[in-house]
């Protein structure tokens, strides 16, 4: 998992098993299922030129269809540790509240609020909830939907369902293949939950969007977005953490660039499976053999045809009174 050396903060993507098909009790749904950490490659630490945040970037292998979770381990003193002056570090280190912003393929997937009063450091994020907390959508990899743009050129696209049109948002297209986690310093207050107003329809994620098959991102094979909507198991808690204020920009970012295995092999990031390499070589040999046999057939036909003509001539010389019609014969191999 990528770890920020200065603060000890880490973040990782875990693959999860498919959700149960039957409705389970609230106690069982609160349990975290078995996770499989995504294999990570090419870890690098940089500074984001736009936000000034420390950015930890890794490449991971994506999956065609699989729920996943974002697991972050952060200390309440992470911000102070990162920004304190080395000469007076001990006097400035203090706990802070944080807001964790999840961004999937350039689209916001909600926030997680972390209070400095909480003793635990590990935070499992597997879903995003609606404003009224009555429904939720899971984080999920899904096969990318590619279409021919000629089939979607209509004069009145503005009246169509957004999921029935090709995505033309340049920011989303540019961000395909990325899962980003922003850590933002904030001040939180604990107070009564207010009833949610104007519940909006769930916004489509890249899992529900269509993309041009001519796009360079078509090789990604899948997207990282949200699942369909599921009803929540119970009413929301009466109290919640509200954001009193927060910094305009994150101070720490984790970026996961996901790619299918085929691309990682082509790039040389991971070694190709030896069994697959042997099969590829065998297919090449078979193709070469087929090509050789194809090249030999015309010469074989010519030789056989010449022999047949000579033989027919001898027969006619010996038995001119009997003529055999060979015009309908098949002299091919």
TrEMBL record:
This is DUF7918 domain-containing protein. Residues 1-13 have a biased composition (Polar residues). Residues 37-273 form the DUF7918 domain. It comes from the Eukaryota. Residues 1-33, 195-214, 267-333 are annotated as: Disordered. It comes from Puccinia graminis f. sp. tritici. It holds the Pfam family DUF7918.
């Amino acid at each position: 998992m990528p770890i920020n050396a200065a603060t000890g903060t880490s973040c990782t993507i875990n693959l999860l098993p498919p959700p149960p098909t039957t409705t389970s009790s609230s106690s069982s749904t609160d349990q975290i299922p078995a996770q499989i950490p995504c294999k990570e490659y090419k870890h690098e630490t940089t500074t984001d030129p736009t936000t000034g945040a420390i950015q930890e970037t890794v490449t991971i292998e994506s999956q065609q269809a699989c729920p996943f979770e974002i697991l972050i381990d952060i200390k309440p003193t992470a911000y102070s540790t990162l920004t304190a002056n080395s000469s007076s570090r001990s006097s400035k280190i203090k706990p802070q509240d944080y807001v964790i912003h999840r961004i999937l393929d350039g689209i916001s997937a909600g926030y997680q609020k972390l209070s400095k009063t909480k003793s635990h450091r590990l935070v499992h994020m597997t879903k995003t909830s609606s404003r009224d907390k009555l429904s939720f959508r899971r984080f999920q990899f899904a096969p990318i939907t590619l279409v021919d743009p000629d089939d979607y050129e209509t004069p009145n696209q503005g009246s169509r369902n957004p999921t029935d049109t090709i995505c033309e948002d340049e920011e989303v297209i540019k961000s395909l293949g990325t899962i980003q986690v922003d850590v933002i310093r904030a001040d939180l207050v604990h107070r009564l939950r207010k009833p949610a107003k104007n519940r909006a329809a769930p916004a489509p994620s890249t899992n529900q969007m269509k993309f041009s098959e001519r796009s360079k991102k078509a090789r990604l094979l899948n997207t990282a977005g949200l699942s369909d909507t599921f009803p929540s198991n119970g009413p929301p808690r009466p109290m919640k953490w509200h954001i009193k204020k927060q910094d305009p920009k994150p101070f720490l970012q984790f970026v996961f660039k996901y790619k299918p295995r085929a691309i990682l092999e082509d790039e040389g990031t991971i070694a190709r499976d030896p069994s697959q390499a042997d099969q590829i070589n065998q297919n090449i040999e078979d193709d070469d053999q087929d090509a050789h046999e194809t090249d030999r057939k015309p010469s074989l036909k010519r030789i056989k045809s010449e022999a047949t003509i000579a033989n027919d001539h001898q027969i006619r010389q010996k038995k001119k009174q009997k003529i055999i019609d060979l015009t309908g014969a098949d002299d091919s191999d």
